[in-house]
Amino acid sequence: MQVRFWGVRGSCPSPLLSEDIVARLEEALRLLDRDPQSPDLSDPAAVARWINALPLSVRGTSGGNTPCVEMRTAEGDLFIIDLGSGARPLGTALMEEDFGRGQGHARIFLSHYHWDHIQGWPFFKPALSGRQSPRNPYPSRTPGNAAARSRKRRFSRRLCGTTCAPTSRFIR
């Protein structure tokens, strides 16, 4: 199973500020200056290897988007847990795959209906494309049709209708 976290931040998305990016670039340049085996800067592959060897605190980020987790099984099944602001970059990536050809399928589970766990839905490209609507963008842990209808109504009231483009018609 492969798991990728597209968002882990609580309550409010918190992207890097320009100052944060500058600080990371400055640190990378200091490390480059001190590295006795610094790469040939005209060799893109050598530069990429050097950058990939940098500490994650310099070359990466975490926590900017609100919760969204992608899980893929060895069989290729796709599960999405929560649709926080991380759903936007996930949706963009999915459109480069089967979803962009109208053949994608995902099972979506929401842990709960707080805004930080659903705010990415209006920007989730697979739902906006009209080619493929994801299935079950609501928790599926409660059995029974009445429970499913209740979840659909709750999700729709919180987010859909006049407040976002992908309306409740995408919710099964």
Compact summary:
The protein has about 170 residues and is of the alpha+beta class. It is built from six helices and four strands.
What structural class should be given to the helix and strand makeup? alpha+beta
Low-confidence region ranges: 135-143
Question: Strand portion, in percent?
Answer: 5-15%
Tertiary shape: elongated
Total beta strands: 4
The end-to-end span amounts to 26 Å
Strand order of the largest sheet: 1-2-3-4
Verbal overview:
The protein has 172 residues and is of the alpha+beta class. The chain has two domains: 2-7 and 64-170; 18-59, no CATH class. It is built from six helices and four strands. A hairpin with a 5-residue loop joins strand 2 and strand 3 (78-81). It is elongated and about 65 Å long.
List the helices and strands and how they pair.
Blueprint: E1 2-7, H1 18-34, H2 44-53, H3 56-59, E2 68-72, E3 78-81, H4 87-94, E4 107-109, H5 125-128, H6 145-159
Parallel strand pairs: 3-4
Antiparallel strand pairs: 1-2, 2-3
Considering the chains and any ligands shown, give keywords for the structure:
172 residues, four-stranded mixed β-sheet, 6 helices
